[in-house]
Amino acid sequence: MSNDVPASAAPDDPSAAASVRQFVTFHVERETYAVPLAEVQEIIRLPEMVEVPLAPPALAGLANLRGSVLPVASLRRLFALPDRGHDDATRVVVINRAGGHGSGQEITSGFVVDRMASVITAEAGEIEGADGLTASAEADLLSGVIKQPAGMVTIIDLGRLLQRSGSGRGSGGSSRHAEGPAEFGAVAAARAEGEASDEIQLVSFELAGQEYALPIEHVQEIVQVPEVVSELPNAERHLIGVINLRDRLLPLVSLRTLFGLPAAPLGEQNRIVVVSLGTASVGIVTDTVKEVLRVARAVVDPLPELLANGGSLREVESICRLNGGKRLVSILSAGRLFDTTQMSGDRAVEEGTMQETRGGTEVARADEEEQFVVFRLADEEYGVPIEAVHEIVRVPEQLTHVPRTPAFIEGVVNLRGAVLPVVDQRRRFQLPDAERNDRQRIMVFAIAGVRTGFIVDSVSEVLKIPRSAIVPAPDLAQDDDNAVERIANLADAKRIILMVNVDRLLSRHEVADLKAA
Questions:
Q1: Predicted confidence (pLDDT) per residue in 119-140, tens digit
Q2: What is the DSSP code (8-state) at residue 433?
Q3: How many domains in the chain?
Q4: What is the pLDDT of residue 455?
Q5: pLDDT for 472-506, tens place per residue?
Q6: Which pTM does this prediction carry?
């Protein structure tokens, strides 16, 4: 336990020890409360927290406590007191107790208090039950009182506190695994409605104002450019260097340099598209990733022979015509792209991407990872399994509002001849509305067989996450419709990603309304 609370000496007489108990005391508003010292793991300053949508009001958020997800509740909200600003005296009391019903699991949770008091020792005769307390919502959370000369201290019932705060289930333990991680695009394509050979999926990106794309089956993930890139001596100009991507050495190639375009400084908008080349991987640095496209093969034409024969455009295998030919996307061939690079340090690349080991043991294999599309809403990050995402498209300037559609539908859009209902995800999660902007995207999911779009603030990356970093979410609602089922705790990166179960984004009644619309 931290030094914020002074320790109290335990009784020297063993027979007396059995008749006394120790409590940690603290203040909320003008009252003093106590919890058993034996169940207090530590006392910490207020950490950075991730707010969870549609959680019980008492849940202040989730924090990262040395690699574990810690649900933190507000005692003020539990006691129906007004919120107040936090200051230097604010503390979080972290409790650890056995789970109920003989589960054999431990529950770790925290609650915010105004300020700490001390550790006190109470004899059995000084402790009375809660029968005399006034019947109220607050009294329901109390188990008794300590009567001492200095005054009366109320004891909190930790079991009821955990249940009421939304932390009834422990945040530790293993996650509920899916059958296996999907290779990017393979499972998504298999599940897509009307999946047939007449459509392909592409990841599009910009380079010097031009739009390019790669077939989605060659794209492993999309990540941000890290702060540190290690340069390789005597390497080709287009080889920027190597980075450490989850214990793998990933070579980075500048497409600008490879295509003979002017160099540009790297910034927050740049993204690395990790391309699969058989058993190896290479990261290509793009100006920005635009969207995931699902297009009909009929609008994809081979590169004209006049251009292909020149050799300078051999990396481009076809052209995609969108918006009636007003938008042309050059589709690259991953194989041709890197056949001609002849990168220096190929041996290092092979050893780094094909045979990575650490301390003689193989690093996480594909079956130990899951892939997620990460998006942002307000200030928080969310993830959905890659196989659940049918496509990602821009938000049109105007959504068409259709009368007699369910109230939760923001509008509809025409997506390649099909009417797609669209839900504003901010409004769905009861977050403040936001002005429409260029970063927003529509993520298309199939919920109970109905293709539905959800507007998010931005789609940031496609990320592989070790299953060891994914844990079940605490009980954040009193029903089975809470969409956040798991938490990805990336302790090294100081990130907590809320994992969304797409099937629970809409309730059963809303899905029925959607089908009937």
A1: 888 888 888 876 655 544 456 7
A2: P
A3: 3
A4: 94
A5: 887 654 455 678 889 999 887 788 999 999 998 88
A6: 0.64
Q: What is the pLDDT of residues 143-163, one digit of tens each?
A: 888 888 878 898 998 888 887
Q: Do 151 and 227 sit in the same domain of this protein? A: no
Closest CA to 75 of 99, 89, 93: 93
**97 in a domain, yes or no?**
yes
Identity (one letter) of the amino acid at 225? V
343, 473: one domain: no
Which of the listed residues 103, 135, 165 is the one where a domain comes to its end? Answer: 165
For residue 441, being part of any structural domain is answered with yes
Residues 349 and 257 in one domain: yes
Q: What does the radius of gyration of the chain's CA atoms come to, in whole angstroms?
A: 28
| Count, residues in the chain | 517
Q: Are 37 and 81 in the same domain? A: yes
Q: Mean pLDDT, to the nearest integer, of 229-253? A: 80
Please check whether residues 395 and 464 belong to one and the same domain.
yes
Rounded Cα distance between 515 and 517, Å, is 6
Quick one: pLDDT at residue 67?
77
**Structural domain contains residue 375:** yes
In terms of residue numbers, what domain contains 313?
Answer: 186-363
Domain annotation covers residue 498: yes
C-beta pairs of 17-22 under 8 Å, 24+ apart in sequence? 19/123, 19/124, 20/121, 20/122, 20/123, 20/124, 21/121, 21/122, 21/124, 21/127, 22/119, 22/120, 22/121, 22/122
Query: Please, what's the b/e burial string for 260-272 (b: 16 or more CB within 10 A of its CB; e: otherwise)?
Result: eeeeeeeeeebbb
> By the 8 A CB rule, do 56 and 478 touch?
yes
